[in-house]
């Protein structure tokens, strides 16, 4: 197909050339050239023209059979565009050439100034001044750039100090873990203190009991001797029994309060466990519904 299109373009060019030749022959005939020579040339050109027309017709038949008319039109438009681009390139090159010639003339003029004595020294002085001014301007630009760079680095450090979302999430996790560890340590410490206080109270009670038994043992022999001492011993024993009963009542009351607190905590724990199970059930149902939704979406998409 591409060969046919190239051939068609070549045939078109040949037709254009033949028409130009015919026009030139007509001009020659007007100028008085020999008619025989012109007839021979005209016959030859007509034969070429007929051959070119046949080639064009053959190519057009091949294009129509291949259903490539749109391709040919696209290629013809591309050829036209290529020609336009060539013209634009030539139009763009012409001012470039002029600018090049102008710059070459300026270079020749500068070389002539450099070769001269007085003019060359003036030019060198002006060139030195221009270089010094350029260096001063360059230094000022470097200073401005350095200050701008320092400001940029300061802003970058400020931006680096601001934590990102990922870092904030990591910080939150670490603080949560630290809070959990602190709570565990606090509970463990409270348990140790409670154990210590209970053991200390047991120690005090045992010391009191030991001292009481020692006191009773020391007074028992004297109290058996007469009835008055027996009555005093009995009264003291009743007072001791009453104090022990009060102490026992206080301990039982404290035990009941602790038992009530324990029961309340058990109820709260049971409610939290039930709520956790309900949340797990809801999460499982939600995941199942999400899976069903995704399956339906894939089925609809297919």
From TrEMBL:
Coiled coil is among the record's keywords: yes
Signal peptide (from-to): none
Keywords: Coiled coil
Coiled-coil region: 35-62
Occurrences of domain CCDC93 coiled-coil (ranges): 15-298
Pfam families: CCDC93_CC
PANTHER family associated with the record: COILED-COIL DOMAIN-CONTAINING PROTEIN 93, FIDIPIDINE
UniProt-listed GO biological process terms: Golgi to plasma membrane transport
Protein name (Swiss-Prot/TrEMBL): Coiled-coil domain-containing protein 93 isoform X1
Keyword Flavoprotein in annotation: no
Organism: Cucurbita moschata (Winter crookneck squash)
């Amino acid at each position: 197909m591409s060969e046919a299109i190239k051939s068609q373009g070549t045939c078109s060019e040949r037709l254009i050339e033949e028409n130009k030749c015919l026009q030139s022959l007509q001009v020659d005939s007007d100028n008085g050239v020999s008619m025989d020579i012109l007839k021979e040339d005209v016959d030859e050109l007509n034969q070429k023209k007929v051959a070119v027309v046949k080639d064009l017709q053959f190519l057009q038949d091949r294009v129509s059979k291949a259903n490539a008319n749109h391709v040919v039109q696209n290629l013809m438009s591309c050829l036209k565009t290529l020609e336009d681009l060539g013209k634009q390139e030539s139009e763009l090159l012409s001012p470039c050439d002029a600018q090049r010639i102008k710059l070459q003339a300026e270079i020749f003029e500068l070389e002539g100034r450099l070769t001269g004595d007085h003019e060359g020294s003036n030019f060198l002085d002006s060139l030195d001044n221009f270089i010094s001014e350029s260096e001063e301007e360059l230094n000022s630009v470097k200073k401005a750039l350095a200050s701008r760079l320092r400001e940029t680095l300061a802003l970058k450090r400020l931006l680096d100090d601001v934590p990102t979302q990922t870092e904030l999430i990591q910080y939150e996790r670490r603080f949560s873990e630290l809070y959990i560890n602190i709570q565990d340590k606090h509970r463990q410490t409270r348990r140790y203190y409670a154990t210590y206080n209970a053991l200390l109270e047991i120690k005090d009670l045992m010391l009191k009991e030991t001292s009481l038994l020692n006191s009773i043992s020391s007074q028992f022999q004297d109290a058996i001797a007469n009835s008055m001492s027996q009555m005093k011993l009995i009264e003291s024993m009743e007072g001791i029994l009453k104090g022990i009963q009060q102490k026992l009542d206080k301990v039982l009351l404290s035990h009941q309060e602790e038992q009530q607190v324990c029961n309340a905590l058990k109820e709260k724990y049971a409610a939290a466990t039930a709520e956790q199970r309900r949340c797990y059930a809801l999460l499982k149902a939600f995941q199942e519904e999400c899976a069903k939704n995704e399956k339906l979406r894939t089925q609809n998409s297919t």
